[in-house]
Amino acid sequence: MAFEQTYRSAWSRFLAFAAVGLAIAFGVSLLLARDAGTTLRWAPALLLLGIGGWLAYGRPEVRVDDDGVTLQNVLRRIVVPWAALAEVDSRYGLRLETTDGQRWSAWAVPAPVGLQRARGEETEAALLVRQRWEQLRGQGAITAGSDARVRVEPDPYALTVIGVLAVATPLSALLVR
């Protein structure tokens, strides 16, 4: 049976729903005001708030499976195979260091705060990654010295949507009266 576990921050999910909810609430209030100019002027900004909020807070996740760790960040996905992993650090959330010396951070994992930080406790996601990594190493399932490489996959759709809305927002404010 294949192993797969996903970590998402509950607080970040709340922030994502809040951003989307605010965008929808303001959009509905503009529609109810029946002022087409104002609605068109604010539509790109509200879309940017809703989509940007979801991309920044709702989408990031850490997925651990038999092949490695996948960090789904805002605008790209980083796939770290187990054989390429050298260190797991949770001082500032979750940071993976690979055998080639690169460091990759997970947007989905907030840094520890308060007593958790003072005690040097690991975040839930870092603990999940570390335990699975050590389990696979103990079973001899990770081939040392293999040519495993980290894959970085930019998200062209998210980049395009954010880019278009970032340009459309000030343009609509200037051009629509």
Average predicted confidence as pLDDT: 90
Structural class: alpha+beta
Strand content: 15-25%
DSSP E strands, number: 8
The percentage helix is: 40-55%
| Global Rg | 20 Å
User: Outline, from the CA principal axes?
Assistant: elongated
Please outline the major beta sheet: 5 strands, antiparallel
Overall number of domains: 2
Calculate the terminal CA-CA distance, rounded to whole Å.
60 Å
Question: Widest sheet: strand order?
Answer: 1-2-3-4-8
Report the order of strands and helices: EHHEEEEEEHHEH
| Uncertain ranges | none
Enumerate how many helices there are, as a single number.
5
Question: Your description of this structure?
Answer:
The chain has 177 residues and is an alpha+beta fold. Helix 1 packs antiparallel against helix 2 (36-58) and helix 2 runs antiparallel to helix 5 (156-175). The protein folds into 2 domains: 9-58 and 157-175, no CATH class; 61-155, no CATH class. The chain has helices at residues 10-33, 36-58, 114-118, 124-138, 156-175, and strands at 4-7, 61-65, 68-72, 76-81, 85-89, 95-98, 103-105, 151-154. 49% of the residues lie in helices and 20% in strands. It is elongated.
